[in-house]
Specification:
The chain has 123 residues and is α/β, with parallel strands linked by helices. Helices cover 41% and strands 22% of the residues. The protein contains five helices and five strands.
Length: 123
Amino acid sequence: MKSIPIKKILLLDDDRIQKILVEKRLLKINSGIEFVYFDTPSKALDYLKTESVDLLLVDLNLPEMSGWEFVEEVEKVSPNSIVILQSGSVENEQIQRSNLDKRISDIFEKPLSESDLRSILGL
């Protein structure tokens, strides 16, 4: 993973429970990181056209397009952001695909634990 300070995270997930879990775990870590959340790819892409983020946490199964398709689109508007994919069940094929894609830093199974977040943030 790129070693840059993470100051702002965007979570894209249509499951609001994931938003609550990530937000609470970030508060527990006391990272001071700004956190923004979107439940659809179109809203996240619109935001990224005018705002920058350091890290994108992206669900693979989304309305409107898949997480893989979102990565294609985000490259056009936020090419320097670190992308972490997440899914309720991560299969070997998804791990291999993410390992081959230089735009993707890692893939995690949901829900992200506090330990996962610390690892992602380099804490």
